[in-house]
Amino acid sequence: MQNLGRAPRRKAARILRLLREFACRVRMKPLEFLPDAPDLFSVYRNLLQAPGVERRPGGWVYEGKFYPDYLTVGGASHAIFSKALKFCIGEGVDIGAGLWPLPGARAVDLYRGPGLGQSISDLANGTLDYVFSSHCLEHIEDWREALHLWTSKLKPAGIVFLYLPHPDCAIWQRGSPFVGDGHKWIPTPSVVRQQLAALGCAVVCADDGPDAMFSFFVCAQKSAAAVSLPVGQHL
Q: Which of 160, 170, 156, 153 lies closest to 133, judged by CA?
């Protein structure tokens, strides 16, 4: 290029730069394939094309209501950690922890994160001080049996702390473009309270919400005379 004039050299340099950028883009995988990519990356492209969803600065409009982006990036549990840690003391687990386990808890998750491959079924009954779970129970079709299994692992006076999507949050309704069929049912504060009571757990703290994460929580304590049924038998 040293024999070229100044303008041709600039043009040639620009062409080479564009070629390098193009080659880099061709080799680059979509952002959602990066390690520990936020959940938003994997849904963004589909949401832009989903019927009934409109993009607005900082979030999405669905069924006439605005939902901020932070609702779709995962880690909803961070909003409840400070409250949960007032009750979740000692040895316990975070079921469905994903990439964001409750500090101090043993992570349990089927799909990702430090709890990958861990199962609460491997723990002995009556050995845990607490069971914490955030935005997990709604993914389980046979959730009553799952909740019975979880509470069976608690010691007498053990704590179960559940943080769940609020039923008024349309983007987390089964069948919405945001969750598809990933959510198997719609938790409500009253139904969750009733099932915990049936399992011999008394509510000690709760907030029916919705909070800033469009969620609610129920914290209950297992009684010494809690119901104990074989897994598979429903109340």
A: 160
Model confidence, pTM = 0.80
Kindly report the CATH number that applies to the domain delimited by 75-222: 3.40.50.150
The answer to whether the CB of 161 falls within 8 A of the CB of 131 is yes
Residue among 167, 101, 169, 158 at smallest CA distance from 133: 101
The Cα–Cα gap between 14 and 9 comes to 9
Both structure tokens of 220: 């209950």
What is the Cα–Cα distance from 80 to 223, expressed in whole angstroms?
24
Domains of the chain by residue range: 1-29, 75-222
Q: Provide the phi-psi class of 74: left if phi over 0, else alpha when psi is between -120 and 50, else beta.
A: left
Cis check for the bond before 114: say yes or no (omega within 30 of 0). Answer: no
pLDDT tens digit string along 40-52? 676 777 888 888 9
